[in-house]
Design brief:
The structure is a single chain. This protein is an alpha+beta fold and about 270 residues long. Among the domains are: about 100 residues, Ku70, Chain: A, Domain 2, CATH 2.40.290; about 45 residues, no CATH class. The protein contains six helices and nine strands; from the N terminus they run ββββαββαβββαααα. It has a seven-stranded mixed beta barrel with strand order 1-2-6-9-8-7-5. Strands 3-4 form a two-stranded antiparallel sheet. Strand 3 and strand 4 form a beta hairpin. Helix 3 packs parallel to helix 5. The N and C termini lie far apart (about 60 Å).
Length: about 270
Amino acid sequence: MATKSAISFGLVHIPISLHTATQDNDVSFNQLHKEDHSRIRYKKTCGHCGKEVKSEDIIKGFQYDKDQYVVVSDSDFEKIKTEKQRSMQILHFTTLDSISPVYYDKTYHAVPEAGGDKAFELLRAAMMQEQVVAVAKTVLGTKETLLTLIPREDGLLVQTMFYADEVKALPQGYAKPPVVEAELAMAKQLIAGMVKPFAPEEYKDEYQERLRELISAKIAGKEVVSAASAEHPEGGNVIDLMDALKASIEQNQPKAKGGRTKKEKGA
């Protein structure tokens, strides 16, 4: 379901709707009782009378003392929003590479509502040409949320963001040994040989496919066979870094007819 909002750009007000940009396609499982495979169910019950409570009978309360709560309704939340907080207020513009991906949380598509098409497209086109993204703020639910608006050829993406105090520091540093120039040159050569445009349709969750096959096999009463691969054997084979880089470059060279690399064919 779309969420109605607006983008405030200076004195320009652009009505939009937000649509979730991603979905979860993973195989889902239910929790079962080990003894009889019955479904485990969770019920919301009242701590006082023990009765099961329906979702529509549940309200929000803040505990300010032991067993003492103050009730806050949805209308209360709306009352304390300022006019600016009812829309996505653009604070400033910056470059995309200036924001670390660690700050990004959820992604939404922004779509202009009736009457906002022209201003929406003007903002998107200007941001695309200037190669900038917009940092904005709005209130989502009960939290003022930091946002990044990212222009694309087909519209605007809205990324919700974490605040700095919500991002954990690196657990521990690591020693940075000096880089050998010859090895660095080899690594750059390997990278250059693996550069190509990102085409999302080329990638799929192969493990989920095998998981669905496993489920089908178990339903049919078939034995599940291990899919362990010999491509990357576990343990042991520690080889020289330079040798590994050379072998990797060789492995990524285009194949000539007969399955040999062009280098092998010319030898």
